Amino acid sequence: MHIVFVHRHGPGQFVHIARRLMSEGWTATLLSQSTDRPVPGLRVLRYSDRQPAAGATDRANRAPVPYVDAGRRVARILDHLNRSGRKPDLVMGHIGWGGMMFVKDVLPDTPAVGYCEYYFQPQGGDVGFDRSQPVGLQQRQALRLRNAVQLATLDQVDCGISPTLWQKSRYPAAYRSKIVAQHEGVDTGRAHPDPLATFRLPDGTLLTPGDPVVTFAARDLEPYRGFPQFMRAAAIVAKRNPHVRFLIAGGDGVSYGQAHRDGGSWRDVLMKETGLPPERTYFLGQLPHDQLIRLFQVSAAHVYLTYPFVLSWSFLEAMACGAPIIASATAPVQEVISEGKNGRLADFWDVEQIAHLIERTLGQPPELQRMRTAARQTVVSRFGLAECVLRTQDLLQRLIGTRKTGNVTRLPTRRPATIHCQGS
């Protein structure tokens, strides 16, 4: 069997299923503009990267033209594979950046699976969450244009996969019946509690479990992931607790939303605003994965804040490591955290409440170990890598089997427990 993955910066969410299929003799090809990690045996074919139009600083306001162009470039590569005798048996790709848009025009009889990560809407999600930034007509129009690429793709793929129930629910009702809630999985064998773990700070200090360490991690330190709220809460905690250290992993770029209006990094702006003591505040940059895991293993309180948006891998990995969780009461976090059972939830905007929960957690309350154990069990039972990958593989193989029988008008169905990683 030959599967082609399509991802702008891959393999991304497809790394685990790609490894699984190749271990069973499948041939796998990745079509991407760039790669985020090497995967032995995965053939990579690159298509050129045309950047969004100049002046598009907001993720939701980017013009759709570059994504249409990406779809055309991917289509040309698929056509070449088809003509050269390397036609894929299945194509699986992210639908948000246009690469999957013309797959069926090239390969009308090949099953296609779309990864449905996020559908933009002017209410109920990330857009409009910050009430100080009202959603105007121009932004609403931009959202509709961005979604046009996804809708054109959803209309033709055989099925879609979305990592959480909430992310699935963002898509129009007309398409939800062909989307399954299926997370790609978390390697809980790699992300696990370790009472002997150590984390070395840039100044040489060696931290171990039990040290008063508050952690925060995001791809980039920006408002979408609650970085300002964390820093303001950390400043409150720092004044009351002179021995607490704050370890912050993430870059100074902007993955989502907008850069600061003054042009500086959010890190510099917030350090100046909050007056956090620099000798106890460590900015670690974007850590290698093994160091990020060690960071979670020594954490005495891990803070995860987010707009209603895509759920972060790092959040689930922190839970798998048994880190005590203080998280925002936003979707889809509330799909994972049950207040008082496997973590604590705070109002995203309530800095005092976040600070209080950090301090309470650092105080080692009696229920802390129970919540740490429950956090890991949540990930093991609902997001465990082996089970999630097997369910995805089962879905893909049944799609191929259905295609061969000629019945492709409906998504293959089986009992939800055998399809959905999240019990949907």
TrEMBL record:
Keywords per UniProt: Glycosyltransferase, Transferase
GO MF annotations in UniProt: glycosyltransferase activity
Broad EC category = transferase
Domain Glycosyl transferase family intervals: 25-189, 209-377
Q: What is its EC number?
A: 2.4.-.-
Q: Quick check: keyword Membrane in the entry? A: no
Return the Pfam families for the record.
Answer: Glyco_trans_4_3, Glycos_transf_1
Give the superkingdom in one word. Bacteria
Name the chain's protein: Glycosyltransferase
